[in-house]
Amino acid sequence: MAFPELLDQVGNLGRFQFVQTVALVVPILHVTAQNMLENFSTAVLSHRCWVPLLDNSTTQDSVPGTLDTEALLAVSIPLGPNQRPHTCRRFRQPQWQLLDPNATAANWSKAATEPCVDGWVYDHSTFTATVVTKWDLVCDSQALKPMAQSIFLAGILVGAVVCGHVSDSDGVDVGSGPPLDDDHELSGLQLWPNPDGRSGLWPASLGTAATGPLYPFLPLLCLFMVAARVGTVAAIHGQSGPRPAGAAEGGLHQPEEDNRGHPDQGAMQEELSGPQASASLGTLFHMPGLRLRTWISMLCWFTFGFTFYGLVLDLQALGSSNIFLLQVLIGVVDIPTKMGTQLLLDRLGRRPTQASSLVLSGLCILANTLVPHEMGPLCSALAVLGLGSLGAAFSCITVYSGELFPTVLRMTAVGLGQMAARGGAMLGPLVRLLGIHNPWLPLLVYGVVPVLGGLAALLLPETQNLPLPDTLQDVQNQAVKKATHSTPAPSVLTSTRL
């Protein structure tokens, strides 16, 4: 039995899918907001070294004459590479000779400067305080910020590995029986056996649970629903496996009539026990028809995670003077971008959409390296376009990767891709450490990687309007058809006078 036929028999859209979607969307919204909060909670404020002439009232009183703040700043803080007051060094002694109109920067040397040994003074006009100002994560300690973000994303990667392994383990088979005890009935949610008589649990008052005190536990509710649905499908096709000891005596046995009326049960059992059931992770990297698809699909996933999280966790690096406006623009543009991507997938196909979205995002990031920071609106426009293209690439690879692999390996391949994306997200913030050597190096790396990923996506086969491959043989047949169509057959037509 093919997978689409199984879905048609079991049902591919219903209350369970709706509840599952809602239960997953709600926590995802919180996670996304938490991730984007990094731009504000760890914002780097304008800063300079603490100097006595400017920040010590006693020393200011001893200054001869009436000198304004700019003059005191000029004799206390040297100019940096951008011809603005240096953010990490100060003069050991006030350089009064710099007040001479004929004086130049050559009148002092680096030996006359020192690090900010007394701390920093921050500009609190936008933020009263951030993590950076709390722990002075600037100058020699500026590398700690991207390292902390990388460790945070590494935790997500480890959590995905652990939770993925747990989700693939054997679940708990819940049979039909009497209503649960009062101990299992919670405010806003009552769990009863599935009313159709099959194995599973049923939420008696889901609407109340979504608005009541159990609102934070909607993901847990989704877990109950998934377990119930899996138990139902397993019972239908006789794949529920051995039951715990004493289940039959306790009234938790499966009624015999649940297995009736399914003539395809034997055929499905034969298919699941055949050679296709032995497909494993190694098949993705050893089978010729799947090896290239696997590596390029993982590269596309990695490119998205690497570039997106490397940029979106530090919007200040994109040169915009107003990260609040930039954040709003990114969120506003993302919605029509996702909708437009679906249209492009139907009109242009999967491969052109995937390649063009990655290449466009990379070109926008590379163009941002050539724009001066004084041109804030242009920097913001390029940043919004680049991140929007990355969002389109994510929507495309989510659909595309599912169509490239057969049913027996589809979730394994998609899981590998998502792991690659999380690995890229973990490495993305670390690239900003290159900014110590040159400010434009991180953006150069963030721009080159999507371009290379987009060009590699051109090597993938087009899957538009093709049936989903169910078995490994289907993938091989697609490769054979592609090779056959790519080699034109000799013409058998001859021209005649007629």
From TrEMBL:
It is found in: Membrane. Signal peptide: none annotated. InterPro entries: MFS (IPR011701), MFS_trans_sf (IPR036259). Coiled coil: none annotated. Keywords: Membrane, Transmembrane, Transmembrane helix. It holds the Pfam family MFS_1. This is Solute carrier family 22 member 12 isoform X3. It comes from Heterocephalus glaber (Naked mole rat).
